[in-house]
Amino acid sequence: MRTGIDATPLTAVSGGVARYTHELSRALAVRFPEDEFWLLSDQSFPYPGEEIQNLRRGTGPANRIERRWWLWGLQGAIRRHRIDVFHGTDFAVPYLPVRPSVMTLHDLSPWLDPRWHTDAGRIRRRTPLLLRLGRATMVVTPTDAVRKAAMERFHIPESRIVAVPHGANPRFHPGEAAARTMPYFLFVGTVEPRKNLRMLMEAWREVRKTCDVELVFAGRVRRDFGPLPEEPGMIFLGAVEEEKLPALYAGAVAVVYPSLYEGFGLPALEAMQCGAMVIASRDAAIREVAADGALCLEANDRKAWVEAMARAAGDAEWVRAWRERGLKRAAQFSWTRTAELTREVYAEAQRRFRRG
Q: Mean pLDDT throughout 102-119?
């Protein structure tokens, strides 16, 4: 099988969709060496597979007409590389259904609250139309929570949509902790309105009155978050190289993830896989992923967050018990398994497309 994969998310310096595209494409190529996987985009992107022979960089627009990428350019690349099935990793598939296609619908956040995604107007308009017209032969979601919500909102037939959980790279494992001078709570992810970080800051300020502990943010700051507060003990690291994240996870008093809504919550899984205690919101997708491996609280119950963070800062045995539960839960996920399940969806897309 020759699979084309939308590589445009790789142009982002960080973020969950970029991580998903990077990890999935590599896992697919390693797990299925008999297949070819072509990364396709009209933009330049960092190539994640230098050492993997069957993970290849495709060509971009061949002429001026192909600069209209999703209408003509992608079709040209699909023909040139003799692609059998195309995987749109970021809410989109080709406009013309000349080959079977799979769309990853990461979550429904662009449609739930416009304030969460001020730059997502194109997705809000385009994706529902592609789904309504049946341009995506199959749809993939990262959790069953998103699958059920997508079926209800977009009227996708149950047989055309499959939940395929993400994994975490093996580099995320218990190891040496980051060298920091003070204990710290850690948030990993894009700093944006949906992550509910103003509430987290308020809860941390209460905890800090009695516990000498920092609050560290690792992730790019989106421009719609607003001005960053400047105060002692609150640290914004910006986008952190993936190789440095395991040590940050391992050294945290707890990893805190109070998001109002998620499609999966990959940082929570990575943290658990590193042996960190995770305190997260009770969002449906996060609870599905974390199960009993993380302490889940109502997203806006600041009192509960203050109590949990204060206890984590002062009760090492309690934290140790949560670390063990998180490790046990995280062991049930892997990118290899994600690749296997995704490859099954590709095959089903081919069968359905042939049946017409």
A: 88
| Stretch among 166-180, 197-211, 289-303 having the lowest mean pLDDT | 166-180
Distance of alpha carbon 255 from alpha carbon 195, whole angstroms: 13
Helix (H, G, I), strand (E, B) or coil at 215: strand
What's the pTM? Answer: 0.92
The pairing of beta strand 278-281 with beta strand 295-297:
parallel
Cβ–Cβ < 8 Å for 282, 297: yes
Smallest Cα–Cα separation from 262: which of 342, 122, 146? 146
Structure tokens at 282: 């009770």
Q: Does domain 2-167+335-355 have CATH number 3.40.50.2000?
A: yes
SS3 346: helix
Do the domains spanning 2-167+335-355 and 184-330 agree at the CATH topology level? yes
Task: Determine the topology of domain 184-330 in CATH.
Answer: Rossmann fold (3.40.50)
Report yes or no: 87 and 4 within 8 Å, Cβ to Cβ. Answer: yes
Question: Does position 195 have pLDDT exceeding 90, yes or no?
Answer: yes
Q: Is the pLDDT of residue 119 over 80?
A: no
* Phi then psi dihedrals of residue 284, to 5 deg: -60, -45
**pLDDT-derived band at 356, boundaries 50, 70, 90:** low
The predicted pLDDT at position 47 comes to 87
Give the pLDDT of residue 208. 96
**Residue of 323, 203, 198 lying closest to 254 (CA atoms):** 323
Is 77 within 8 Å of 58 (Cβ atoms)? yes
Domains of the chain, by residue range, sit at 2-167+335-355, 184-330
pLDDT digits (tens, 9 = 90+) for 254-280: 999 999 999 999 999 999 999 999 999
Q: How far apart are CA 223 and CA 227, in angstroms?
A: 9
What are the start-end ranges of the E strands in 222-324? 234-236, 254-257, 278-281, 295-297
Q: Give 103's contacts (C-beta < 8 A, 6+ positions apart).
A: 88, 91, 92, 93, 127, 130, 131, 136, 138, 139, 140
Q: How many helices (H) and strands (E) does the chain have?
A: 12, 13
- pLDDT at residue 81, as a whole number: 95
